[in-house]
Design a protein that fits this description.
The complex is a heterodimer. In chain A, about 75% of the residues lie in helices and about 5% in strands. Chain A has eleven helices and two strands, in the order H-H-H-H-E-E-H-H-H-H-H-H-H. In chain A, a hairpin with a 2-residue loop joins strand 1 and strand 2. In chain B, helix 3 packs parallel to helix 6. Classes of the chains: A mainly alpha, B alpha/beta. At the A-B interface, helix 6 and helix 7 of A face helix 2, strand 6 and helix 3 of B. The complex binds adenosine-5'-triphosphate and magnesium ion (MG).
Chain lengths: ~290, ~240
């Protein structure tokens, strides 16, 4: 019983991180219909920026997280302005190639500045909580709570504020959004900023129980793509629930089936779900 | 109020609209008649800034619209209620209406007043305000689309085939409402294929064919014109 609970906590931790990364990916897809392969690189840069602020400059973990969020949000906006915006009238394949270009560029840049080593980055939350025999490391509790706050905060922003609603409006009907006077550039920049910030926060939350290195985004981004395909491209609830599904199956599968194959489980699940619901779990209407 | 001079619109090498000059005066209800593919929507989208005219000028109250972004054109007071409605399907009726007030988002009191006016025009929308726009009937969705456009506080409202796909009784009410909107002070440019019903509420009309204007005149002239009767009224 206790082992099962322990694994569920692990699943929830993983699911929280995956959901945050997938949310950023699905938001950008919903607006621009770009599969942003560079999103994993933004995640990686987020971890390195936190490392830089915290280890090199000595800032507090929270300050480093905010700083990293701001830098990666700006980086997201920069990608949109310098790369995706000029390509808006080109065939979609150009966006995809450009996204891979950004990914390679950022990885090479980080490798040049920090080297290819694996780094450890410990947060101030190294203790464990013992709730009636159930062991929860503080950092894992922080990941779960942090992701919950971010997901709820994002929902409130998107549904309750006029500015946030412009993102939903643009995703639901692009021309309709133009006709009420919503500016496409503003929405695109805002979406990339939010997407980058979520990636940086996810990386900052996860890095202390993992390692920081230039290729750290690869597996995460591949799983995030699996998640948004399972959840339905562009669907926000799909990203959160898809993230949880992958997180839980990985934690449980990794323990009860085989730890060596845990990274394959996500892809096996993808095949199963798509053969039952080819459009994804939460796709509505046009997407 | 609205003035078009020698406007061309192209899609790639295909010229959908050639050399159109027309005008709409303040307070008028002008109808733009034309069969499928005549170029009505293309013209509206050029005025709204969704597509850039390849030649000619579009002016609204002396201000050049060509070159403004769609958001700038809405702010200037030219608002389109598009063909196919273009609602936000996963938002409630209320949210759709409030998105219409996007360019006036800082004026909360003004928006409440306009919302009240929209609900007076379409009382059913007040009852349905929490339902998803996509769950409404076609006629009600058209009301949301017109209501959303009104929330943008148009001085010129462009309606692109609002009667499309609606039951005959609903169409009649729709035209009554459009006339009412016009009589309350909003200038209206109405694109229609439903010529008889549209002409009955019009002050003037233009007829488009193959991307060109082929005829214009006031209501009486058009209703009594044999060619118009043959081509669009079927009598
Ligand atoms: N996006 C587009 N790309 C290429 N051609 C287009 C496009 N939109 C319209 N056309 C063409 O331009 C011409 C005018 O179309 P438009 O939609 O403006 O006509 P319409 O009068 O609004 O017709 P309807 O009554 O069917 O709405 C048509 O021949 C159409 O095929
Ligand atoms: Mg049309």
């Amino acid at each position: 019983m206790n082992i099962l609970l322990q694994n569920l906590i692990n699943g929830l931790t993983l699911g929280s991180i995956y959901s945050l990364v997938a949310l950023g990916l699905t938001l950008v897809y919903g607006i621009l219909h770009i599969p942003n392969f560079a999103h994993g690189a933004l995640y990686m840069v987020g971890a390195f920026m936190t490392y830089f602020f915290m280890v090199d400059l000595g800032a507090h973990y929270w300050i480093a997280m905010l700083g990293s969020g701001a830098v990666v949000a700006a980086l997201g906006v920069l990608c949109e302005r310098l790369v995706f915006h000029p390509l808006r009238h080109s065939p979609p394949i150009h966006d995809k190639i450009a996204a891979i270009g950004i990914l390679l560029f950022l990885e090479a840049l980080v490798q040049m500045l920090w080297g290819a080593d694996f780094r450890r980055m410990s947060s101030p939350f190294t203790g464990v909580m013992n709730i009636q025999g159930l062991i929860i490391p503080e950092q894992r509790a922080l990941i779960i709570a942090g992701a919950a706050v971010l997901v709820v905060g994002l929902q409130l922003f998107l549904r309750r504020t006029m500015t946030g609603s412009t993102i939903l409006a643009m995703a639901q009907n692009r021309e309709g959004a133009f006709l009420v006077g919503i500016d496409a550039n503003r929405v695109a920049m805002m979406t990339f900023a939010i997407s980058g910030m979520l990636a940086a926060f996810a990386a900052t939350l996860y890095a202390p129980i993992n390692l920081v290195y230039p290729a750290m985004g690869h597996l995460v981004i591949m799983k995030a793509f699996v998640i948004i395909i399972i959840g339905g491209m562009g669907s926000i609830p799909g990203a959160v629930i898809g993230g949880m599904i992958i997180g839980f199956t990985e934690a449980l599968g990794g323990f009860y089936l085989s730890n060596d194959y845990k990274d394959v489980i996500a892809f096996a699940l993808l095949v199963v779900i798509l053969s039952i619901r080819p459009q994804g779990l939460f796709t509505k209407g046009a997407h | 109020m609205l003035q078009l001079n020698n406007v061309d619109v192209c899609y790639g090498s295909f010229k959908a609209i050639s050399d159109i000059s027309m005008s709409v005066e303040s307070g008028e209800l002008v109808v733009l008649l034309g069969a499928n593919g005549a170029g009505k929507s293309s013209l509206f989208n050029a005025i709204s800034g969704l597509i850039r005219p390849s030649a000619g000028q579009i002016e609204f109250e002396g201000q050049r619209l060509s070159g403004l972004k769609p958001s700038g054109i809405v702010s200037a007071g030219v608002v389109q209620c598009a063909e196919g409605r273009k609602l936000f399907p996963q938002m409630s009726v209320m949210q759709n209406l409030m998105m219409g007030a996007y360019v006036h988002r800082r004026d909360k009191a003004g928006n409440r007043r306009h919302l009240e006016e929209v609900f007076e025009l379409f009382p059913i929308l007040r009852e349905k305000s929490d339902e998803l726009a996509s769950a409404l009937s076609g006629g009600q969705q058209q009301m949301v689309a017109i209501g959303r456009a009104l929330m943008s506080r148009p001085r010129l409202l462009m309606l692109d085939e609002p009667s499309l796909g609606l039951a005959p009784l609903v169409v009649r009410q729709m035209f009554d409402t459009i006339q009412q909107i016009n009589s309350l002070g909003t200038t209206v440019l109405l694109a229609e294929q439903n010529a008889y019903a549209a002409l009955k509420i019009a002050s003037r009309a233009y007829v488009m064919e193959g991307g060109q204007l082929v005829m214009e005149g006031d209501r009486e002239t058009m209703l009594n014109n044999d060619e118009v009767r043959k081509a669009y009224i079927g009598a």
